[in-house]
Amino acid sequence: MFLLIFFRLFMVLDFNHNLVTLQDTQPVVIFTKSVETNCAFFEVYDFGNGNGNGYFEEVISNRDNTSFYYIDEDKQEVIIQKKVSPGQFIVRYIFTFQKKSYEILMKSCSEKLSENKKELHILHKKINNQEILN
């Protein structure tokens, strides 16, 4: 029960902790999902037309030394994983699709991290296949 209360507090207080935005870009939240049984929170941001490559480049150039980065410039994907507290991780999946940048933000407890990463990749695949997010 304490873990659930802590996780909810974590979600409220740290909601925009690592969301990097360009000065001229206002992201739009297109999907939100909270899965209490998996100790996970997902949010998908759309950075609009024309800003795809700019946001991607901004994320690469403004690296945080306390995070793990996976960068694939050919696919225009960046995955950033950061431990924000004991047992709590934030994973950001930034990618470009059809000249638009998207960011999937996932917050997860460490014991469910690998399971929640599978859901993160499912969301990515749905965006690329232009499917409804659910």
Compact overview of the structure:
It contains three helices and six strands. It is α+β, with helices and mostly antiparallel strands.
Layout of strands and helices, then pairs:
Layout: H1 2-13, E1 28-35, E2 40-49, H2 52-61, E3 68-72, E4 77-85, E5 88-97, E6 100-109, H3 113-128
Antiparallel strand pairs: 1-2, 2-6, 3-4, 4-5, 5-6
Walk me through what this model shows.
The chain contains three helices and six strands; from the N terminus they run αββαββββα. It has 134 residues and is α+β, with helices and mostly antiparallel strands. The chain has a six-stranded antiparallel beta sheet. The longest helix is centred in the last third of the chain and has 16 residues. The chain is globular.
Structural class: alpha+beta
Distance between the termini: 26 Å
What's the total number of strands? 6
Measured as a percent range, the helix fraction is 25-40%
Uncertain segments of ≥5 residues (pLDDT<50)?
Answer: 1-23
Give the ordered list of helices and strands.
HEEHEEEEH
Q: How many alpha or pi helices?
A: 3
Q: Indicate the radius of gyration in whole angstroms.
A: 14 Å
Average residue pLDDT: 83
Task: Report the β-strand fraction as a percent range.
Answer: 35-45%
- Strand arrangement within the widest β-sheet reads 1-2-6-5-4-3
Query: Sheet with the most strands?
Result: 6 strands, antiparallel
Q: Tell me, briefly, the overall form.
A: globular
Features:
134 residues; alpha+beta; six-stranded antiparallel β-sheet; 3 helices; 6 strands; 28% helix; globular; disordered N terminus
